[in-house]
Design goal:
The complex is a heterotetramer, with two copies of chain A and two copies of chain B. By secondary structure, chain A is of the alpha/beta class. Helix content of chain A is about 15%, strand content about 25%. Chain A is globular and about 50 Å long. Chain A starts with a helix and ends with a strand. Chain B has six helices and twelve strands. Helices cover about 20% and strands about 30% of the residues of chain B. Chain B is globular, with a radius of gyration of 17 Å. In chain B, strand 4, helix 4 and strand 5 form a beta-alpha-beta unit. In chain B, helix 2 packs parallel to helix 3. The two termini of chain B are about 15 Å apart. The chains are: A alpha/beta, B alpha/beta.
Chain lengths: ~220, ~210, ~210, ~220
């Protein structure tokens, strides 16, 4: 099954959105995770926290409504929703590291069956810096990795990450366009599978130990 | 009453080889006018402590592009490819610090604390060369306080007593940096004639030395 | 949207034997109505974490006078002779903590930090039984984080999202306590119909569980 | 020479006021130190910090102008001066412990030639708690002890404090109604003497090693 980038991102972002609950405070990473916001039902009240100092991030401003003093962590101007608040980086990381954020959604270069995640550098190639990711992964109550299942033809869901870690033993859930995997003490539990893919499409593209339940659930859409 | 100086004079307060903290998260809440003057003054061999190295052609990002920075202690360099390039070429030293740890290290410097005990970075390369302590069965890294010779911070409004009000998401690192440098210069969009309402003060004037209005 | 409850229901959320943080500096910024209901509910064997034990006939001071407190972790008991009396009689356990250390211990609890490294208390009885670390040639005490089952905090104004604005000198311990308890209840003088201006929020609603209006 | 309590307090508070400089941020302890504020010349701009969360403490409010939401660290309603700011206890002790307060003035039960100070408890008798005093003494740039020279007939200026310390090696200056003593590495330097007292009145009431300069300065008034 070949999906284009856009379809992949939509499948993942839609599925991640289902992990969020009424009243949750959520921090979304840059890139794909940011798109999760587009699939939160308008009736559901979710507060998006941005590590640069906003809780209650709203929609993109219209061109004539841009305030350079209100941005998200990507430096992009945003608006605020009802109930928003501004604060400094110290308070932001008190929220993040102190366990006050219900869930964080982050991309990853690699993730493994121990719940380790690598998403901040490829030695000698890409060293953007960890930004707030290390604190987010350590501190958020629930850590959701939202990523494309493979990177070109490289396997990303491993027995043990080979890239420098962002944090150890912190990932709870891995959501790709092919499946939903839960990190358990015995390996990755295949909770859901996208019916567009076969079980073989999963097992052949995951190096980690997989726990495959007798009755496979279809990915929630 | 604090001394009100020009951006140019503020730029000149920063000496070659100084350590400087610069507030802001990318462009937001960054004191750009003083940075312009610092660039104009030709100051070099600086140690930069900031959230990020911004963009190659913006504010503190230009300090990188124009090779004024000897060492950068930051959480993120991804938006400024010039930093990565100079880092790989060995032209600049870069100490990457998790953002939450960076803000706490600056806070510790400003609050007279001996260090920070954080779970962030445990099990990663950030641990390297650092002491860790086990407290109540959990492992924490001991991270060192950070101070600087000069802090350049942004304010939306300030009064002559140095009290500053920061709007929107401009607060970011400005609040802690105001506490952690020998000399603190606030660059304000607006200098008010009257005093700020004491309830609306984001950064009390006690932390401020100079105002650039 | 946060749950809005009565002071009486808030009082009932606190169980016998619970640890509670109560904001306020003496009477200023103290959530008095919930304390009234806590007294009325007969709750006892509490561990109180607060700046002080107020006065014998006021707010949390009455929790002492009426013998509801098993242990008090505070910076000052001088304004409530009843605390000193019960302490000398062995009726109550009192842990006296330097004020700056107390606020940092609560902050560490709320911010996920492993402890506090402070120079305060070095060379005094406060050192007793505690680990100290030498960092850059200076000695610091390692003080442990504090958390509680419940925090009762005060607000001058709050909105339905739990955002709170605190006026004057009422902020004191309220801001940090909001971050350091399992359940946080804010008692507000005024519940606004509209939202607070996001620039005017002293305590973001993310830290708040219940509102007593 | 017999002075009454009021005279004693006035001499001390007046002399302490001379230690403050234009633009200083100062934290005054409860009791006698608070009275120092009365002797700061109106032309001099001094900002008084109160550890409960005010900088720029002003005069006592008139009875119809009391706001219970604005108090000093003694719980007494105060007003604020121009340029005042409110903040929380965390910020307050960042100021105090972080070295941002130019001077603190505190009372003492005992003080000694090593710069040790005891002002927070008498075991078995008085245990009010240290409040913010330990942080203040450790953190303020200059620590001034302002106290009556003796407590009834007991000597308070010792070789070594016998009461539990508030902090070790932190006191800079001791100001009593009889003299001004500076803590030096070699002992207490008698910087000024109140001409109402003889040198003998000092030496007989100070246990600490005294350094007496050849030409005695009169207390600055």
């Amino acid at each position: 099954m070949e999906l284009n980038k856009e379809q992949i991102r939509e499948i993942i972002a839609k599925r991640v959105a289902k992990e969020l609950h009424e009243g949750d405070y959520v921090t979304l990473g840059i890139g794909l995770p940011t798109e999760v916001a587009n699939y939160i039902p308008p009736s559901m009240h979710i507060m998006i926290q941005s590590e640069n100092g906003v809780v209650g991030v709203g929609a993109k401003p219209s061109p004539d409504n841009i305030d350079p003093k209100i941005t998200n962590a990507g430096g992009i101007p945003v608006t605020t929703k009802k109930g928003a608040a501004f604060f400094d980086s110290m308070t932001s990381f008190t929220m993040i590291r102190g366990g006050h954020i219900d869930a964080t959604v982050l991309g990853a270069l690699q993730v493994d069956q121990e719940g380790n995640i690598a998403n901040w550098m490829v030695p000698g190639v890409l060293v953007p810096g960890m930004g707030g990711a290390m604190d987010l992964v350590v501190g958020a109550k629930k850590v959701i990795v939202a990523m494309e299942h493979m990177s070109k033809n490289n396997i990303k869901i491993l027995k043990k990450c080979t890239l420098p870690l962002t944090a150890a033993h912190e990932v709870d859930l891995i959501i790709t366009e092919r499946c939903v995997l839960r990190v358990t003490e015995k390996g990755l539990l295949l909770e859901e599978i996208n019916p567009l893919f076969s079980l073989e499409d999963i097992t052949s593209t995951v190096e980690a130990d997989l726990i495959i339940p007798p009755h496979l659930q279809t990915i929630a859409a | 009453m604090k001394k009100i100086i020009s951006a140019a004079d503020a730029g000149k307060l920063i000496k070659n080889g100084a350590s400087i903290m610069i507030g802001g998260f990318l462009k937001c809440g960054t004191p750009t006018r003083i940075i312009e003057e610092l660039l104009a003054a030709g100051t070099h061999d600086l140690t930069l402590i900031a959230n990020d190295t911004s963009y190659p052609d913006s504010d503190r990002g230009r300090l990188i592009s124009e090779k004024r920075i000897k060492k950068a202690i930051v959480a993120h360099i991804g938006t400024n490819p010039e930093t990565g390039k100079q880092f790989h070429n060995g032209e600049i030293e870069v100490e990457l610090v998790p953002m939450g740890t960076l803000v706490e290290r600056i806070r510790a410097g400003g609050a007279g604390l001996g260090g920070v005990l954080t779970p962030t970075g445990i099990g990663t390369v950030v641990e390297k060369g650092k002491q860790s302590l086990e407290i109540n069965g959990k492992k924490y890294l001991l991270e060192m306080p950070l101070k600087a010779d000069i802090a350049l911070i942004y304010a939306t409004r300030a009064d002559r007593f140095g009290n500053a009000y920061l709007e929107g998401s401009t607060r970011n690192f400005n609040t802690v940096m105001a506490t952690a440098a020998q000399t603190v210069i606030v660059e304000t969009d607006e200098l008010v004639d009257e005093c700020l309402d004491p309830n609306m003060v984001t950064i009390p004037g006690v932390f401020i030395d100079y105002i650039v209005a």
